[in-house]
Amino acid sequence: MESLTNTIQAVPLNHYILLSTIIFSIGVIGVLIRRNAIVIFMSVELMLNAVNLLLTAFSVYRGDATGQVFVFFIMALAAAEVAVGLAIIVMIYRNTNSVDINVLNRLKW
After folding, report:
1. CA distance 71 to 67
2. Are 58 and 64 in contact (CB under 8 A)?
3. Partners of 100 in the beta sheet?
4. Does the domain formed by 2-107 have CATH 3.60.150.10?
5. What are the distances in angstroms from CA 28 to CA 21, 36, 45, 75?
6. How many CB atoms lie within 10 A of CB 41?
7. Which residues contact 20 (CB under 8 A, 6 or more apart)?
8. How far is CA 28 from the centre of its chain?
């Protein structure tokens, strides 16, 4: 465990912040621009993973395991989101034969 901590701390914290910002931005752009429900769910997962990376990096740099505990709970939340989200997408596809979110306007009434 000590060698992993030294390896992670060998990379400056600014690099982790920059990488997490780029990954989170890609996720936000994917949610705002794309109309495919599966791509939107993948973009949300990208944003959660960016936060996980940043929490883990801060946790290692501070020498405190609190950030890693939060990462565990975020991963559990992401797994639940995937299970429920995929079930919703399957039901939408069965009703509309499409996963385009613009088609969902027909399901209002």
Report:
1. 6
2. no
3. 36
4. no
5. 10, 14, 10, 19
6. 19
7. 50, 51, 53, 54, 57
8. 10
Run of H or E residues at 103: none
Are 53 and 16 spatial neighbours (Cβ–Cβ below 8 Å)?
A: yes
What's the CA gap between 56 and 75, in Å, rounded?
A: 12
Q: pLDDT tens for residues 52-85?
A: 999 999 998 888 888 889 999 999 988 898 889 8
How far apart, in whole angstroms, are the C-alpha atoms of residue 15 and residue 58? 12
Identify whether the C-beta of residue 68 lies closer than 8 Å to the C-beta of residue 55. yes
Residue type, 35: R
Tell me the DSSP string of the chain. Answer: -HHHHHHHHHS-HHHHHHHHHHHHHHHHHHHHH--BHHHHHHHHHHHHHHHHHHHHHHHHHHT-SHHHHHHHHHHHHHHHHHHHHHHHHHHHHHHHS--BGGGGGGG--
Q: In this predicted structure, what is the pLDDT of residue 63?
A: 87
Strand partners, 36: 100
